[in-house]
Amino acid sequence: MAPKLDDVAKLAQVSKTTVSRVLNKRGYLSQATIDKVYAAIKELDYHPNVVARQLYKNKTNLIGILLPTVANPFFGELTAALEMKLYQQGFKVLIGNSMNDPAKETAYLNELLTKQVDGLVVGTHNQGIKQYEHRDLPIVAIDRIMNQDIPIVESDNYRGGVVATTRLIDQGAQHIIHINGPRELATPARRRRDAYEAVMREHGLTPSTYEIDFNLPEGRKKQLFRQLLIDHPEIEGIFSSNDTDAALIMQLAHELGRKIPDELLLIGYDGTKTVRELLPSLTTIVQPIDDLATTAIQVLNDRMQGITTKKEYILPIKLWQGDTA
Amino acid sequence: MAPKLDDVAKLAQVSKTTVSRVLNKRGYLSQATIDKVYAAIKELDYHPNVVARQLYKNKTNLIGILLPTVANPFFGELTAALEMKLYQQGFKVLIGNSMNDPAKETAYLNELLTKQVDGLVVGTHNQGIKQYEHRDLPIVAIDRIMNQDIPIVESDNYRGGVVATTRLIDQGAQHIIHINGPRELATPARRRRDAYEAVMREHGLTPSTYEIDFNLPEGRKKQLFRQLLIDHPEIEGIFSSNDTDAALIMQLAHELGRKIPDELLLIGYDGTKTVRELLPSLTTIVQPIDDLATTAIQVLNDRMQGITTKKEYILPIKLWQGDTA
What we know:
Two copies of one chain form a homodimer.
Chain A (H helix, E strand, L loop, with lengths): L4 H8 L3 H9 L6 H14 L5 H8 L4 E6 L5 H16 L3 E6 L4 H12 L5 E4 L16 E4 L9 E4 L1 H14 L5 E5 L9 H13 L6 E3 L6 H14 L5 E4 L2 H13 L9 E6 L2 H6 L5 E3 L2 H16 L7 E4 L2 E3 L5
Parallel strand pairs in A: 1-2, 1-3, 3-4, 4-5, 5-11, 6-7, 6-8, 8-9, 9-10
Antiparallel strand pairs in A: 10-12
């Protein structure tokens, strides 16, 4: 039989109300009383019923993290960084991998509305979910454009596009293509494309962005990229908006006998620790995952306390100099 | 002002008790009553207070997942698979990345004892945490040996070791080393080593296991592996107990001019989707992540319902045939 609040009160020779006050740090209490109660809690190995205490305080100390999937190294590393930092602040983390399921994303948002979580970090790609229209929700978006009321934390996507494109041009490539998701996607990653196109034009070169649905099965993607390389032997440089696609292109170039970097220059994007360990030869733009997590939590804390935040936080990127460009 | 249970009762013209019964699916209720209550809920956009309902039912519908870190592709993909399947059963997932912090692992276990989660999936490496001694907790371990009362779900590590070692020998290697964690680690992965050593001896070859702390910083690991390759030019085959180390060896072999597979055969372990996409040329043993997740959830469901389970569930591995062996 698990010990109850009652047992703690009896052993400590105080009232149940006093035990409750000690647990919830409420009202005036002498140090002697606090010590007596904690001594009794320890002796009985008493575990307060957390759900009941949460109801009383109207706080769950849970933060929801809603991302496409932790199976992707970028989101896996981001979630790990968020979890570690939130844990240090006394929060536990509830995850939701929405993938492309707006119903699932909506279900998680309803959790927030029914007060199962105190705040939410969102980085999904689903569109038009009406729950986001509720004002003043403690939500922060990472690398996603939501609505005017939700602050966004992102890395400097435009600068990343400039650095990548400039490097390809400086190394002598003229026929450079960019691979990115569909333009209508509500993500700041589209700024990488804007930067690529601007830099190309500044150098008198013709930009050519190859749009690809990032949810295509890998086999289909491989077919498309293979055809692209076969049909366009004039391509000298590729700036890919993610490292997975860049890795696929490396593999295809090898199969087709196109030497990297001698005949084809290649730069990826994201630069996770996983990619840098598994494929250190890939030159890529590194997103500051740890700083994104730190900033998102600061912004969320402000929102939870009702403090007004900026609309947008842009963090610097870095270049990982591999051998492919 | 958010609508209350009271408002729903008034609009539906039923008692508060009836609304509560409908919400908790308790007692006899006519379909007409159920329909009236749900119509009122919808009209008022009423969100039941979930924390209060959980207290009533003494269930949280939360499952905790306690793993070293979702930043690692194996645990990231495993967590994604568990989350997806648990979501389909109406559970939400609370994650804890324990890393090497027994204090953090203990804190998560205390959550379970204080009923914040209904069950727990554990795959951490910390030792001697006394909370695991509580009998009959709804816990399942993945790829970790806990204690006699906690069922374990794992892939066929011994078979994986046999397949890898046999392949290296069949391709002509005789001086084959195995890289693994310290033997005292309580993980079934040590069976890969047992299998390697047995197969080597069966073929009249001398096994040589190189023990390495998997938490070493990457730079230090790289130094050690580089020295190993330089000091032992006789090595013809390496069976690495994880793909990250195998990727590091690929890179070092390239730097040192040791041609893979002509001069050095290499096989990794885990074979995550991430590794197969980023580094498809690496031959590796594939753990059945999706099946591990499905089985772990079945076992956990049994434990939560008080059904006796087996002590151990061993699932088949596969070989990914890359170009390195």
